């Protein structure tokens, strides 16, 4: 039994050296704000409720330094950016933008975003009814991109 526990401990220590690349670029060249006028209140919602998973500027929690949690977070952020990356907005073509806006409207309307698992850990990311409405109203202004 001691050998098994020692083996598990050694594996846990060794995997700490396998760290995923951080998502923390400071390049805002292609950011959505370079193309669209976003009201300050909406921009704050994006920063608080969306940007960690849907931009190139993730603010990592303390447990991101611990494998395998760091692996899960990296995979989760990469998956979120595949659907929408506010930091790469100007790289999308017109059809992609229209599709993203349509999807964004749907997930916000259904309150599927931010994810419940994210809100459990980041309480301030939860959108109130008024924030949800404000965000949807803004999405409606850009809907016919």
What is the element layout, followed by pairings?
Blueprint: H1 2-14, H2 40-54, H3 69-83, H4 94-109, H5 116-121, H6 129-142
Helix pairs in contact: 4-6
InterPro entries: Haem-bd
Protein name: Haem-binding domain-containing protein
Organism: hydrothermal vent metagenome
Percentage of residues in helical conformation: 40-55%
Distance from first to last alpha carbon: 63 Å
Low-confidence stretches: none
Biggest sheet overview: none
Strand fraction band?
under 5%
Please tally the β strands and state the result: 0
Number of helical regions: 6
Q: How many domain units?
A: 1
What string, H for helix and E for strand, traces the elements in order?
HHHHHH
- Quick one: overall form? elongated
Kindly report the average pLDDT value. 93
Rg over alpha carbons: 18 Å
What is the SS-derived class? mainly alpha
InterPro entries: Haem-bd
Protein name: Haem-binding domain-containing protein
Domain Haem-binding: 9-143
Pfam families: Haem_bd
Short account of what is shown:
This is Haem-binding domain-containing protein. The chain is mainly α and 145 residues long.
Structure, described:
Pfam families: Haem_bd. This is Haem-binding domain-containing protein. InterPro entries: Haem-bd. Residues 9-143 form the Haem-binding domain. This protein has one domain (2-142). The chain is an all-alpha fold and 145 residues long. Helix 4 packs antiparallel against helix 6 (129-142). It starts with a helix and ends with a helix. The chain is elongated, with a radius of gyration of 18 Å. It is built from six helices and no strands.
């Amino acid at each position: 039994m001691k050998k098994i526990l020692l083996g598990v401990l050694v594996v846990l220590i060794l995997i700490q050296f396998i760290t995923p690349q951080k998502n923390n670029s400071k390049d805002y060249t292609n950011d959505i704000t370079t193309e669209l006028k976003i009201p300050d209140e909406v921009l704050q919602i994006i920063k608080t409720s969306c940007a960690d998973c849907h931009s190139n500027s993730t603010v990592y929690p303390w447990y991101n330094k611990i494998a395998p949690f760091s692996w899960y977070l990296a995979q989760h952020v990469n998956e979120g950016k595949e659907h929408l990356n506010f930091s790469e907005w100007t790289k999308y073509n017109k059809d992609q933008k229209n599709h993203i806006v349509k999807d964004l409207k749907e997930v916000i309307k259904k309150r599927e975003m931010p994810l419940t698992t994210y809100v459990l850990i980041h309480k301030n990311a939860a959108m109130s009814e008024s924030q949800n409405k404000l965000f949807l109203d803004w999405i409606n202004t850009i809907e016919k991109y």
